[in-house]
Batch of 2 targets.
Target 1
Amino acid sequence: MKKTPETGIIQLVVATGIASVACQLLIIREFLSGFEGNEFVIALIMFSWLVLGGTGTWAAHVAEQRFSPSGLSRLALLSMILAALAPLTLLAARTARDFAFVHGSAAGFYTTFAYIFCIVAPYCLLLGFLLPYSLFCARHLDPQFSGTRVYIADNIGDVCGGAVFSFILVFVATPLQSMLIVNSLLVASALFLLSGSELLRAKILIPAAVAFTVLIAAPGVEKISLHQHPGNLVHYEESRYGRIEIFEDHGQHTLFLDGRPVFSDRNVTMAEELGHYPLSQVKNVEEVLLISAEGGMIREIEKYSPERIDYVEIDPGVTRAVFEYKMLKKIPEINVIHADARLYLSRTANSYDAVIMNLPEPETFQINRFYTKEFFRLVRARLSGGGIFCFHSGAVGNYISEIQRKKISILYQTASEYFPEILMLPGRRLYFLCADRPLNPDIPALLSEKKISTSYVHGYYYGNITSERISDLKSALYNNTDPNTDFSPGMVAVMFSQWFAKFQTTPALFLGLLALGLLVYLIRTTGEEFVLLTTGAMTMGGELLVIFAFQIFFGYIYFQIGLIVTVFLAGLLPGALIGERLKNMGRRIFLLTDGVLVVSMGLFIAALYFAGSLMPESAFLLVGGIISVACGMQFPVALHLGGAGNPAAVRAFSADLIGAAAGTLVISVILMPYTGLFWSAAALIAMKTISLGFVSLRYE
Amino acid sequence: MCLWAGLAVPGNSMPGIAQASSKRGAKTVGRVHIFRGDAPDEPWKFSKEAFSYEKSGTTTICSICPNHCVLSPGDRSICRSKVNIDGKLYSLAYGNPCAVHVDPVEKKPLFHFLPKSRAFSLAATGCNFRCLNCQNWEISQVRPKDVRAYELFPKQAVEHAQRSGAESIAYTYSEPITFLEYTLETAQTAGKKGIKNLLISNGYINREPLLKLCKAVDAANINLKSFDDKIYRKLNGGTLKPVLETLKTLAEQNVHLEITTLVVPDYVDDPAMIRSMCKWIAKNLGVNHPLHFLRFFPHYKLDRLPPTPVPVLENMRTIAMEEGIRYVYIGNVPGHEANHTWCHSCGELLIERHGYEISVPGLSNGKCSACNAEIPGIWNRDEA
């Protein structure tokens, strides 16, 4: 390809796409390490990213009208600034937390939002600015330059950036090393844009040198910037699932996953509670399944002389670390299985005397899959006669709050669908022991019968777990709660309520303002923008639903989930190419693609409902591909119908981003947790049907 | 409106007050503030006119704790339990405990007070602090009407305590200073029936109400959360000096006093600070008050710190003993030898604790069986 300024611009747009998506993923991971990992926080990150991007896009439009003509050297300079901003944004997200919040403390909804918004603002505003600005630069050179070319180039970059990060960088590089790699490409592209031109002079070379310096220097402070706890950071690893850190302090090792302490090697209480409460109930403990573990737990289980302990942990990095630092005792009976526990249970033929689950509370849809009716049924099927299942939720203190009551009631109701006997024991957590036979709450007596000694249970049990406290729990249960299911994850909504209660706030103000803003936008919007807005929402909302449904049936499989995300991005490209060819068909393309979106989502939901787990994995990819292609086809048509000028292009980019932001937020934090998967899909279908009706009438 | 700016308020010399006036007239320490317009229109069944407050027109100033909440009609105090209704200050937490349990007295923790006895433990809602690691935030950080409560007015509470076989009533879990009217009256009623009274508190109370409380209370465990005012403000939303004053008053008034310090990593684990704290205790309170260092576990909002390493707690204990404090315990570490009581004089094992399983092998008539040294505390009749 002969190098012209236009091709240089297209290459720069591709490089920007690669860098921006990789940076987005890295920064999302960073925020998830610094804040709650729930859907609200994920939605807030995506929302901030998209809204700020949209604002940057709008700012480009304003700048283009008011200031001097767009120039290549300015485009190159801005791209270099973007490249340098990327690692600085990541470092700020990591280190500024202790200035904004009390060290070691959690943050509430609004403070999290404000922090995320402020930290990503410079990067996202500039990123949003650059895409239309690239188009203006190209049109400055060639007034007929098509906006679709920029859109396609951006999509190519996005797909490549997502794939490079998810399938390569996450395995081989630390976050700041990844920043160096993807952003070096961006700086190089910016220099390449000006190569051979008189524009490549000192005032560009100096910024390039500064950008490279920042990028190269940043990995050098990686470990220092992570050192946020007392003691020594003896293990650090970025696995595909998140950040694994082990801090050693005065001989105590504490495992942190995504910034939160998960367990330490000296938590006798939890280790004994988790081990002995269920196992003391079993006559002969031979086969034990652990779904995640607790420090020191194996030592307690070993006291029952089991024949085999299957320990399922999704992240090989975690097991490597905990065994290396002796946080779990490695004994010959232990058999480590790296898999999604739900997937493992659905495929194994083994049966167990005890299944002990030590997972966080269901704050996310991913974790919620382990607290549903369907999962409990699966566990029940894998228990041997007389076997026991133990899971836990957060601690219940001296008072059972309304939210706790709801939580306990839902869990109890859900478990009771398959376990006729459930014993709730309030300890450092609230333990649910589930079986098909009567259970004995006198754990110390059971342990004495088995001649098993303990440090905690024998001495503390009777003082902490009185019959009155056990009966208080039972009497606090509501009888009329709906069970938590895969498709109606009511527990996630309760966990959201708990988070908000902890910080004595509600998201009502935020959501109200958002709804108002959206309404104002909709009133001012053109027909083409409305179609793009709803398609943006449909694509992002659809992507979340497809991933959510996939996880239910196939488990959290990193590569497949990555593949779905990639398909959702990749489909935009052929879609845009087809749309560009067929753009003269205008309204008919809108009708066709909107119809395809409605029908494909409808068929997907119908297939889920009727076929469920019989659906092949490829069906999920197919749906993603169809939605994505349909979405991609609309963009060139919208540009064509709205007029090919710069203002129309800017509005089109903005509509897409705002729709995507709204879709992410509404689906993940409102519709999914409160109404379930089917109603969420129905809402998307209804929204797109309105768009379809609008297109029919508007272009009649 | 700032009616009370510059007004001489009793206790104004307290550090909490000196830094506590806001533009709105509310007394604030860090993130602590009163709740404007949050009071109910009229008192309810569980209301009682506040025990100690001042008035100016229709504005009230609560004088129970160093927050000195200045409330206009319709306002609610920092602790959420007091409201100004038509110019009168009411407690809304009187006779409506939301948590009632019978616990081992060692759970409070009180290790030198009637070992093996049971404490009828109750709590109404409210707290004048905002601890980021609160174990009971679901009752301490809410209003009385936000919870399901029992109806247990002082007389009934004492009857329940008697029926439960408890030898004491513990005012605990949340912050009893915020429901002082209820605490005081129940304690007075219980005292007449021969039931002991235990105050488990953050110690954030003014001297005058505390003096009244001292007459009704037999033992107290005060949570000395750190020995640094900045940390108090940051983690707890309070100030240090009033707590130290409380400790001195309790010691002066001969209330059996034990002190608890939660060793929060990165905050309360500085050996120099702990040494200063222990020096202060030894100098101002004496060396006989048991001191409990508790292991921290991530909880509530303070959930991104590791648990306290046990050697850090052991080091704290060593420092305290070097400073002369005779009875220093380590809590939240099952099976640790510092759960037991060892004679300060001869080192003999006096009380052996495996959680709440207690045996008293070395104590007789309140003295060490081996060396006859007097052991500070209030002991069971068979040991006293």
Target 2
Amino acid sequence: MIVCSICQHDNLTGAMFCAECGASFADNHSLIEQLVDPEKNQSVSNKPSDDPFQKFSSGEPWGSLHLVDTGQIFPLSQRNEFTMGRISKGQSIRPDIDFSPYQGYDAGVSRMHAVIKRDGDRIILMDLGSSNGTYWNGMRLSPNVEQIIHHRDIVALGKMKIQIMVKN
Amino acid sequence: MPSRKPDYYEILGVFRDAPQADIKRAYLDSAQRLHPDRNVAPGETELFLEIQLAYEVLSNPKRRNLYDATLPPEIEESGVIKHEVSFSRTNLVQLDEPQLVYALLEVGPRDQKEKLPSAPLNICLILDRSTSMQGDKLDFVKATAIHLLRNLRQEDVLSVVAFSDRAEVIVPAALNLGKKKHEESIQMMQASGATEIYKGLQAGIKEIRRTLDPSRVNHIILLTDGQTYGDEKACLKLAEDAAAQHIGITAMGIGHEWNDIFLDALAGKTGGSSAYISKPSDIERLLTDKFKALAKSFADEVLLEYKRQEHIRINYGFRLQPEGGFIEVESPIHLGPILQDTALHILFEFLVSPQALDGDVLTLLDGSLKTSIVARPRPVPPVRLKLTLDIKQNPSKEEAPSRILNALSHLNLYRMQERAQAAAEADQFDTAARYLQNLATHLLSQGEHSLSKTALFEAKHLETKHAWSLAGHKDIKYSTRALLLSGDQEKAE
């Protein structure tokens, strides 16, 4: 028996791909490799952090955000909490992850839109009172209420769709 | 090929240890094709006489024994085709639970440099002219049929049958026909009536049989835009009969009303596939490509016959190239054609029960490959196909060969789509949506952005509306199928 490390599905011995989520058993590192590929990805982990969850952090990314429309990948590493939004000129609001280069304005992303954080094994998403709303698997979240989300869930900031990938 | 002493076994295309029944069957098959009353090509009467002689010797046990004594030792390899097998694991493991193992079978011409003349065609176009074809669809179909007819080579035969709830022959199967008149009959086709595929198929097979010839590529192309009702079983039976006469079937569905499962099964009976034409303007390109592929046929069919091994099941079989398609795994399996420039690639999934693991070596499959090669009137000797794996205590650390990994990773996407369809079929829409979301993730990581979006859209559609969108499922199915092919081409570079 092979238990899939991503979805815990039981697969027959000899299976090469998970019958449930399609993850490859041949190389379990594909996700991680993708996350740390410096060529393709923009790292958002440079900012010094005063994060209270710092003690859980390490240099390895614990997950990533995939923009569904453009395929852009944002690794999540070194910190446990990231604010998402867009930087606009002349404003001092600076979210950790800035979607302004990816048509964030057109997609209706607010300057401080939502926050994603890791708390132990749980991944939490919270809308920060955005104008166009934060959607989790199609459901609009109430502002400032924490929502536990999972690997491969689809989150939308306004019209900007993002898939959440979490490394177990 | 160098001339040498005639090998009667080779002439009949049977193994040396073939039982009398096989020899008789092989003789009857060949004799039917090459009988002086039937054959057309020069030299075929001589071949017929050779076969006659071979049968006389081999059917008589005494003469067969005497003849066997004079034979040189058997050459294991066929001179015409070659095959190669790779496994997902180098050995099986002693386990108390069922396990899976994958095998990739590649069959191609032995001598790839040899330039073969392009095979003459005997093609029947079976065209749906039911009411729903009215407009663009029928116009493009007509234009394409006329275009193909005009560009026909001297040696090719193209017949055209139109059907709705009845069938009529628009262009009869014949060499050297007056094209002008037939172009007009194609132009006159009018859309009306319902879709009864059986009627069309029956008339088409009748037509193609008029010019049936083993030295041609005999192939039916069915174009439809709708579902047929109640005659599916009869259609599948017809397809089986066609396969027995080496007539291949390709089924093309236009738009999104047609039943892809049924057309897959229908074409699959002959080793052919179904194709999806999303918009009428693609009809010409897809049909022309199909014609080109058929003219490049090296073998119009590879047949795998095998005996069931106890405690081993072939779970799944899929043709990766030349044309992606589902294959039925009951023996005999119609694997599909080999093209002059494209070998046949088949992937099998075997399920091995613990009871099978007794001994050091396990035979997964024991059978033979029979090939009918277009440019060769004489039967090709069958090739033995025996797939065996060692049984060991521990799994091997060795990685699977990259060719099988590549094949599996592309097939993985296609199978996720299949699982989503199966779940949706069983009214488990949330499960289906989950499969599609997973598929979207993988598509995304392979850079297939727009297909990924389609998958996400369909996932949502299934969740909220409990149904696929009109074109969605076919878009995903045939696009993931197309990825199989593009993946293989990359590998070849």
